[in-house]
Specification:
Layout lengths: L1 H16 L2 H12 L4 H8 L3 H13 L3 E6 L2 E6 L2 H17 L14
Antiparallel strand pairs: 1-2
Helix pairs in contact: 2-5, 3-4
Length: 109
């Protein structure tokens, strides 16, 4: 039973990280909470595309939205998510420093 729960948890996190746009959103939110319009501009995607990715990240339980008047501010659902992302990046780069060079990201996985 515990293995199934752990498998589901890892699959949700993996789903969130499997898309470069969602990964970039998580990296930005790791630094500071953000508003969808600002995040879309920083990443270079439309607000609709960003909204779809935020919905996925909310569904995975990784981000939450906090209403602020007519706007919503997004942040990581738990501060440990930022630590987990940092640890995962550090681990991947330690195990394989040549992994995913910037010019070859599509062949990474």
């Amino acid at each position: 039973m515990k293995i199934a729960i752990h498998t589901d948890a890892l699959a949700r996190f993996g789903c969130a990280l499997s898309d470069p746009t969602r990964a970039e959103i998580l990296l930005l939110l790791r630094e500071n909470p953000g508003y969808p319009s600002d995040l879309a501009e920083r990443i270079g995607v439309s607000r609709q595309i960003l909204s779809n990715h935020l919905a996925c990240l909310r569904g995975c339980g990784l981000v939450v939205s906090e209403p602020e008047g007519r706007r919503s501010r997004y942040e990581l659902a738990d501060t440990r998510i930022a630590k987990a992302i940092d640890d995962l990046i550090g681990l991947v780069l330690t195990v394989d420093p040549a992994c995913c060079p910037a010019a070859d990201t599509e062949d990474c996985c």
